[in-house]
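re: ur question from yesterday

yeah so i grabbed the chain u mentioned. its 146 aa long if i counted rite. heres the sequnce exactly as i have it in my notes:
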Amino acid sequence: MRPGEDHQKDVREYSQRMLSSLFPSRPSFREAIRRAEEQAEYPDCYTAQEEYMAHELCKIIAEVYLMDPKKPIRISGEWLDGHVVAEVFGEITHKHITCVMEEYERQTDEIRNVKAYLRTMLYNSVFTVNSHIGNRLNHHLNSRAD
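ran it thru and got these C-alpha coordinates back, copy pasting raw so excuse formatting
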Protein backbone atom coordinates (compact mmCIF):
# COMPACT_ATOMS: atom_id res chain seq x y z
CA MET A 1 0.00 0.00 0.00
CA ARG A 2 1.31 3.46 -0.88
CA PRO A 3 1.64 6.22 1.66
CA GLY A 4 -1.63 8.11 2.02
CA GLU A 5 -3.83 5.35 0.56
CA ASP A 6 -5.20 4.49 4.00
CA HIS A 7 -6.08 8.14 4.54
CA GLN A 8 -7.81 8.37 1.13
CA LYS A 9 -9.76 5.20 1.86
CA ASP A 10 -10.81 6.60 5.27
CA VAL A 11 -11.90 9.87 3.67
CA ARG A 12 -13.94 8.01 1.01
CA GLU A 13 -15.62 5.83 3.62
CA TYR A 14 -16.36 8.86 5.82
CA SER A 15 -17.82 10.73 2.83
CA GLN A 16 -20.02 7.78 1.92
CA ARG A 17 -21.28 7.51 5.52
CA MET A 18 -22.04 11.24 5.60
CA LEU A 19 -23.86 11.14 2.26
CA SER A 20 -25.80 8.07 3.36
CA SER A 21 -26.96 9.83 6.51
CA LEU A 22 -27.99 12.90 4.52
CA PHE A 23 -29.55 10.99 1.64
CA PRO A 24 -30.70 7.56 2.83
CA SER A 25 -30.49 5.04 0.04
CA ARG A 26 -33.62 4.05 -1.73
CA PRO A 27 -34.67 0.44 -1.77
CA SER A 28 -33.91 -1.61 -4.82
CA PHE A 29 -36.69 -2.28 -7.31
CA ARG A 30 -36.98 -5.85 -6.00
CA GLU A 31 -37.33 -4.60 -2.42
CA ALA A 32 -40.01 -2.14 -3.52
CA ILE A 33 -41.85 -4.91 -5.37
CA ARG A 34 -41.70 -7.10 -2.24
CA ARG A 35 -43.20 -4.25 -0.21
CA ALA A 36 -45.98 -3.78 -2.77
CA GLU A 37 -46.65 -7.53 -2.89
CA GLU A 38 -46.95 -7.71 0.91
CA GLN A 39 -49.26 -4.72 0.86
CA ALA A 40 -51.43 -6.31 -1.86
CA GLU A 41 -51.30 -9.77 -0.24
CA TYR A 42 -49.75 -11.18 -3.41
CA PRO A 43 -50.01 -14.04 -4.41
CA ASP A 44 -52.16 -15.38 -1.55
CA CYS A 45 -55.42 -13.63 -2.44
CA TYR A 46 -55.41 -14.12 -6.20
CA THR A 47 -56.43 -16.90 -8.54
CA ALA A 48 -53.88 -18.24 -10.98
CA GLN A 49 -55.51 -16.14 -13.71
CA GLU A 50 -55.33 -12.96 -11.61
CA GLU A 51 -51.71 -13.40 -10.48
CA TYR A 52 -50.13 -12.03 -13.66
CA MET A 53 -52.05 -8.77 -13.63
CA ALA A 54 -51.77 -8.41 -9.84
CA HIS A 55 -48.00 -8.72 -10.17
CA GLU A 56 -47.96 -6.05 -12.91
CA LEU A 57 -49.91 -3.73 -10.62
CA CYS A 58 -47.42 -4.40 -7.82
CA LYS A 59 -44.62 -3.35 -10.17
CA ILE A 60 -46.42 -0.07 -10.89
CA ILE A 61 -46.84 0.52 -7.15
CA ALA A 62 -43.15 -0.22 -6.63
CA GLU A 63 -42.21 2.21 -9.37
CA VAL A 64 -44.15 4.99 -7.62
CA TYR A 65 -42.35 4.20 -4.35
CA LEU A 66 -39.01 4.63 -6.12
CA MET A 67 -39.85 7.92 -7.84
CA ASP A 68 -38.37 11.11 -6.43
CA PRO A 69 -40.98 12.34 -3.92
CA LYS A 70 -40.03 15.94 -4.67
CA LYS A 71 -40.99 15.60 -8.34
CA PRO A 72 -44.60 15.60 -9.54
CA ILE A 73 -46.25 12.44 -10.89
CA ARG A 74 -48.87 12.53 -13.61
CA ILE A 75 -52.21 11.07 -12.52
CA SER A 76 -55.30 11.38 -14.69
CA GLY A 77 -53.65 14.08 -16.79
CA GLU A 78 -52.69 16.25 -13.81
CA TRP A 79 -49.34 16.67 -12.09
CA LEU A 80 -49.61 15.80 -8.40
CA ASP A 81 -46.96 16.04 -5.68
CA GLY A 82 -44.86 12.86 -5.71
CA HIS A 83 -44.93 12.43 -1.95
CA VAL A 84 -48.74 12.66 -1.92
CA VAL A 85 -49.06 10.06 -4.68
CA ALA A 86 -46.67 7.72 -2.83
CA GLU A 87 -48.69 8.19 0.38
CA VAL A 88 -51.93 7.38 -1.43
CA PHE A 89 -50.29 4.29 -2.99
CA GLY A 90 -49.33 3.25 0.54
CA GLU A 91 -53.05 2.77 1.23
CA ILE A 92 -53.54 0.22 -1.58
CA THR A 93 -54.63 -3.24 -0.45
CA HIS A 94 -55.84 -6.46 -2.05
CA LYS A 95 -59.32 -4.91 -2.25
CA HIS A 96 -58.03 -2.03 -4.39
CA ILE A 97 -56.04 -4.34 -6.68
CA THR A 98 -59.11 -6.51 -7.25
CA CYS A 99 -61.22 -3.42 -7.99
CA VAL A 100 -58.67 -2.20 -10.56
CA MET A 101 -58.49 -5.63 -12.22
CA GLU A 102 -62.29 -5.86 -12.48
CA GLU A 103 -62.57 -2.40 -14.00
CA TYR A 104 -59.71 -3.03 -16.40
CA GLU A 105 -61.30 -6.27 -17.61
CA ARG A 106 -64.52 -4.41 -18.43
CA GLN A 107 -62.66 -1.73 -20.41
CA THR A 108 -63.38 -2.13 -24.12
CA ASP A 109 -61.76 1.03 -25.49
CA GLU A 110 -58.19 0.98 -26.73
CA ILE A 111 -55.76 2.30 -24.12
CA ARG A 112 -52.70 4.03 -25.58
CA ASN A 113 -50.63 4.26 -22.40
CA VAL A 114 -51.54 1.23 -20.31
CA LYS A 115 -49.09 1.94 -17.48
CA ALA A 116 -50.32 5.52 -17.02
CA TYR A 117 -53.92 4.30 -17.17
CA LEU A 118 -53.29 1.63 -14.52
CA ARG A 119 -51.38 4.08 -12.31
CA THR A 120 -54.39 6.42 -12.43
CA MET A 121 -56.77 3.55 -11.70
CA LEU A 122 -54.68 2.49 -8.70
CA TYR A 123 -54.58 6.07 -7.38
CA ASN A 124 -58.33 6.58 -7.83
CA SER A 125 -59.17 3.19 -6.29
CA VAL A 126 -58.06 4.44 -2.89
CA PHE A 127 -60.84 7.03 -3.00
CA THR A 128 -63.56 4.95 -4.65
CA VAL A 129 -63.12 1.29 -3.69
CA ASN A 130 -66.09 1.15 -1.30
CA SER A 131 -68.37 2.83 -3.85
CA HIS A 132 -67.13 0.37 -6.49
CA ILE A 133 -67.93 -2.62 -4.28
CA GLY A 134 -71.34 -1.18 -3.38
CA ASN A 135 -72.12 -0.56 -7.04
CA ARG A 136 -71.13 -4.12 -8.02
CA LEU A 137 -73.25 -5.52 -5.20
CA ASN A 138 -76.28 -3.41 -6.20
CA HIS A 139 -75.87 -4.44 -9.83
CA HIS A 140 -75.62 -8.11 -8.86
CA LEU A 141 -78.68 -7.94 -6.61
CA ASN A 142 -80.74 -6.04 -9.19
CA SER A 143 -79.79 -8.42 -11.99
CA ARG A 144 -80.93 -11.38 -9.87
CA ALA A 145 -84.28 -9.70 -9.22
CA ASP A 146 -85.06 -9.52 -12.95
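noticed a couple things. The longest strand covers residues 73-75. also DSSP finds six helices and two strands in the chain.
anyway ttyl
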